[in-house]
């Protein structure tokens, strides 16, 4: 098949149709296939690319994408050619697979995606297994010096866990995907700790009474050396990732770099988003009015975001949508009571309809808008009549993705 942009778009659409993604259909379908057997067979069919580059493996409930990008920025500044694999994407599928070099970052070319999708047999594979195979295949072809790999879900049974990295990192533990990972932070920590490998240093971004015993027990059994970011002497500073948790993420990244023996480039880390193309982390989309978006979508992340909004003391307008399988009951008590909400449902069957969302947010001031673009436009109009306000867009990756696309087109 000859590459054309139309042929590429049709092939990508076919991939989504034949191999449903968790991003579009959730975890209740064949999109989620826990276990490593399928990925191991696929990696073997590809010539074992997972064995052909050094790697850092990063798991966690929140912060793992930011930590991955910080590490990629710092490693590239040290002169390394860095592969960066994260998920989900916001606007372009290729955001998942990047090359970060001293001179800048780039996404995997469409032609490479096209070649891979036309040459391989994907029978019986999940969408995430295919994209993971694509990332590993391309990183091997690019002869990266090292790759920073984000876990998709959990850790122990995640497709990325066929790697034997140089460092395993767990950023944070919160209650998310409980039906699949467990209903306690301890149970979820056990799944994340499944990325620990014999003799490979493991770094945890946080230590607490519920999760530390789980990490320590797993490290003892594996066995592997275990470290906590708070025990490292690091100096924090401002970066272009300005979200509420980014200080903790930076501490974790700096500790990881110490373990790797890499002298951190402060300027590179301060410009992580610019150096890696990371979007949607407390990102300012507009200055007048001030519009902030953030992909935080579970109670631990939204608790921090909503608290930061309340602490400004400014009028709050919030474009909000959520997936039907998320913990809305856990999110509802966190939502600022004095804000006005523009309720939306992003595209896709997973989204909670805006009118259903309204029925579950009794006591809050809400406008039902339907789709994301309508919600953003109505919120911007309201912001023009509300001096000094902040307009926040969030609740779901998918809400943020559609909003980013709208603002970019403007």
Fold blueprint:
Layout: H1 5-18, H2 22-25, H3 37-45, E1 54-59, H4 64-77, E2 82-85, E3 97-101, E4 104-107, H5 110-119, H6 127-142, E5 146-150, E6 167-170, H7 178-181, H8 185-192, E7 202-204, H9 212-221, E8 226-228, H10 246-260, H11 266-270, H12 272-276, E9 283-286, E10 290-293, H13 299-311, E11 316-320, H14 328-331, E12 340-344, H15 354-359, E13 365-370, H16 372-384, E14 390-394, H17 397-409
Parallel strand pairs: 1-5, 1-6, 2-5, 6-7, 7-8, 10-14, 11-12, 11-14, 12-13
Antiparallel strand pairs: 2-3, 3-4, 9-10
Q: State the shape.
A: globular
> How far do the termini sit from each other?
36 Å
Category from helices, strands and their pairing: alpha/beta
Main beta-sheet annotation: 8 strands, mixed
């Amino acid at each position: 098949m000859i590459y054309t942009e139309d042929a590429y778009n049709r092939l990508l659409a076919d991939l989504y149709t034949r191999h449903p993604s968790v991003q579009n259909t959730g975890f209740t379908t064949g999109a989620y296939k826990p276990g490593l057997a399928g990925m191991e067979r696929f990696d073997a069919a590809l010539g074992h690319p997972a064995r052909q580059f050094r790697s850092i493996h990063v798991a966690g409930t929140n912060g793992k994408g930011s930590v991955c990008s910080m590490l990629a920025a710092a490693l590239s500044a040290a002169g390394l050619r860095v592969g960066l694999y994260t998920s989900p994407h916001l606007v372009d599928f290729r955001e998942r697979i990047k090359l970060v070099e001293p001179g800048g970052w780039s996404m995997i070319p469409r032609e490479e995606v096209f070649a891979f999708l036309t040459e391989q047999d994907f029978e019986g594979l999940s969408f995430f297994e295919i994209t993971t195979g694509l990332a590993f295949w391309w990183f091997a072809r690019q002869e990266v010096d090292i790759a920073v790999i984000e876990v998709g879900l959990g850790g122990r049974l995640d497709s990325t866990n066929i790697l034997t990295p140089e460092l395993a990192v767990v950023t944070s533990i919160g209650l998310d995907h409980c039906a699949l990972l467990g209903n306690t932070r301890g149970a979820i920590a056990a799944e994340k700790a499944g990325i620990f490998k014999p003799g490979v240093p493991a770094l945890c971004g946080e230590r607490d009474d519920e999760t530390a015993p789980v990490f320590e027990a797993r490290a003892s059994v594996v066995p592997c050396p275990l470290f906590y970011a708070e025990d490292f002497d690091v100096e924090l500073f401002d970066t272009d990732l300005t979200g509420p948790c980014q200080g903790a993420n930076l501490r974790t990244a700096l500790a990881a770099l110490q373990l790797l023996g890499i002298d951190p480039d402060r300027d590179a880390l301060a410009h992580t988003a610019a150096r890696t193309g990371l979007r949607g982390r407390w990102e300012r989309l507009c200055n007048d009015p001030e519009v902030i978006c953030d992909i935080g979508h579970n109670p631990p992340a939204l608790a921090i975001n909503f608290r930061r909004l309340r602490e400004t003391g400014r009028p709050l307008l919030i474009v909000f949508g959520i997936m039907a399988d998320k913990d809305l009951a856990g999110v509802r008590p966190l939502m600022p009571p004095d804000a006005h909400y523009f309720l939306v449902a992003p595209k896709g069957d997973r989204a909670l309809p805006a009118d259903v969302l309204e029925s579950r947010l009794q006591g809050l001031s809400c406008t039902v808008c339907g789709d994301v673009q309508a919600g953003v436009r109505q919120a911007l109009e309201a912001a023009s009549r509300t001096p000094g306000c902040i307009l926040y867009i969030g609740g779901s990756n998918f809400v943020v993705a559609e909003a980013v696309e709208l603002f970019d087109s403007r």
